[in-house]
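Note on ligand handling. Small-molecule inputs were canonicalized before submission; formal charges were left as drawn, and no protonation-state enumeration was performed. Where a ligand contained multiple stereocentres, the stereochemistry in the source SMILES was retained. For pyridoxal-5'-phosphate, this procedure yielded the string shown in the input block below.
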Amino acid sequence: MISKSRLDGKFGKYGGKFIPETLVPAIEELESGYEKYCTQRSFREELESLLKNYAGRPTPLYYAKNLSRYVGGAKILLKREDLLHGGAHKINNTLGQALLAKKMNKKRIIAETGAGQHGVATAIACAVLGLNAEIYMGSIDMSRQKMNVFRMELLGGKVHPVKSGTQTLKDAINDALRDWITNVNNTYYLLGSAVGPHPYPTIVRDFQSVIGREIKQQMLEALHRLPSAIIACVGGGSNSIGSFHQFINESNVLLYGVEAGGKGIRSGEHSASLCAGSEGILHGMKSYLLQDEFGQILGTHSVSAGLDYPAVGPEHAYLKDTKRVRYVACNDDDAVDAFLLLCRYEGIIPALESSHAVSYAMKIAKKMNSSDSVVVTLSGRGDKDMDIIMDYTKPGTRKNKRDDRKT
Ligand SMILES: *Cc1c(COP(=O)(O)O)cnc(C)c1O
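Structure output:
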């Protein structure tokens, strides 16, 4: 079924296609390509087979008994996207879009990346599908994330340093868009989150919705009921919208999106676009942005690179205004606490991004009773975050140091 948002790309007043005229043909070709293939049986089957046999779906829904007992209250269940090939949910989207590109006969794939996670996931998908990956990355990000640059190159990708602006993610997106305008004929732009002009927010949501479909099925199989709440972290918003989509009409299921509160909302050093931002236009969409009174984009901060983006997908903006999803922020210290707890109690090293969701899940689980269940999407694994955790847990680094935890 084709919903209204599919046609005009609007989520209430958000979303849309705020693009230069030169980009219109590329976007129109993408729209019709996606409409053609997304319902085609052979496309769906090929993608399902890749997700199952290559990426490792379905991922387990794991009842974290030890953590639940420690917290007291509701059962906490973890949707283990960290166990996917590549170590995060991003591959659900890159395999889907790379396959779409191949069907559309585009052999050259371009992508943007911040910390490098989406770049790596893109290079993986392109390698397995025989496509060429070219990835735009800010030169500051490149020097901060040398290992991911090396990974992309090993996987056959070519990394273009971006030296304009702040030399980080938002500038990389601008350069990738410029490349696309120039090379529309043979090039597919593989966007990494549920952001950008229509149809990207819809495409990325559709490919990530496998997370929520599995949660629903696994909850019904294991506990014969839907969860009381689902909680996911929000950067651009892809793992969260993928987790929520199947449950939007299930009004008994509470939905929480957790943004990066950084050093606290009041400090101004955060990436909480929904909690602290305002309406504006960036990267082809109308949504909530972190901007000053003149519409200039503000600098962002988070201990987790994957949440460090000054905007958010337009569907989340709509879900915030309609109050179907509650958006909250979790600061760096609390995310690191949750990270350490999950390591200690469950033997799982989560991504720092996902740790934001774990932290908030513990907060609400505590207030519920044992017949309730809370599903947390563990969007990725934390091996990439070792250096940050090592620095962060050095004595004197934390703002509110706590050592009352049993070891
Ligand atoms: C990229 C990333 C995120 C944030 O991106 P969304 O589009 O908001 O999902 C969250 N967790 C992990 C592990 C990531 O790599």
